Amino acid sequence: MSVKILAIDTSTEHCSVALVVDDQWFVRREVSPRGHAQKILPMVDEVLKESGMTLNALDALAFGRGPGSFTGVRIGVGIAQGLAFGAGLPVIPVSTLEAMAQGAYRQAGATHVAAAIDARMSEVYWGRYARQEDERWAAVTPECVIAPETLVSQMNSDQETWYGAGTGWQAYQDALSGLPFSVVCGEVLYPDAEDIAFLATLAWQRGETVTAEEASPVYLRDQVAWKKMPGRT
């Protein structure tokens, strides 16, 4: 199926944009702890210019809907909504943890991925995924925010060797070493717009889109995020 989807991700230190036009890919990415709001739109302009496309000619716009940095996720959904509104495009929110699973498959052929993003406050954003024959990912462990020690105590053993993706593995190496299954950590540290775009093409084929108004972030730590907003205690 011919599809043209633009994806953006600002949920972590890694800022990225990807455009898929049929089987052609146009990607920009940069590790930058700050300045995502200033960097992302020029990156969008670059991939559109390189591809010869305009926003109005696309089928949909995808974004990393979290979990991740509260500020980064908020920037991503805001920019995605603004671009989609202006171009009249539907929106496809994609889990950042699932995107890392897809990144592990793209880079290392991994089919069982344990994704852990450092959530600060001595916690990780966590999810485990198994790749299906139709290229989708089944959530073996639903995404959550959890202390590594609590996670270790709740996990059951299994016979799979899991690919460890994300910054959480290094941040909490000692605690996570107690997990009751085998983990081989790889080089995928962050979600990437290229993998978000790929997952979005599958969602597009299934008709899983929302309007720009309906696009919403997933923080997992909603109560903490709410308290950090100006005027809240």
From TrEMBL:
GO cellular component: cytosol
One family name in Pfam for this protein: TsaD
Stored SUPFAM superfamilies: Actin-like ATPase domain (SSF53067)
Taxonomic lineage from the root: Bacteria, Pseudomonadati, Pseudomonadota, Gammaproteobacteria, Vibrionales
Main location: cytoplasm
CDD domains assigned to the protein according to its UniProt record, in alphabetical order: ASKHA_NBD_TsaB
Name the record gives this protein: tRNA threonylcarbamoyladenosine biosynthesis protein TsaB
Compartment list: Cytoplasm
Keywords: Cytoplasm, tRNA processing
Domain Gcp-like, chain residue ranges per copy: 30-175
Record-stated family: Belongs to the KAE1 / TsaD family. TsaB subfamily.
Coiled-coil spans in chain: none
InterPro entries assigned to the protein according to its UniProt record, in alphabetical order: ATPase_NBD, Gcp-like_dom, T6A_TsaB
Single GO BP term: tRNA threonylcarbamoyladenosine modification
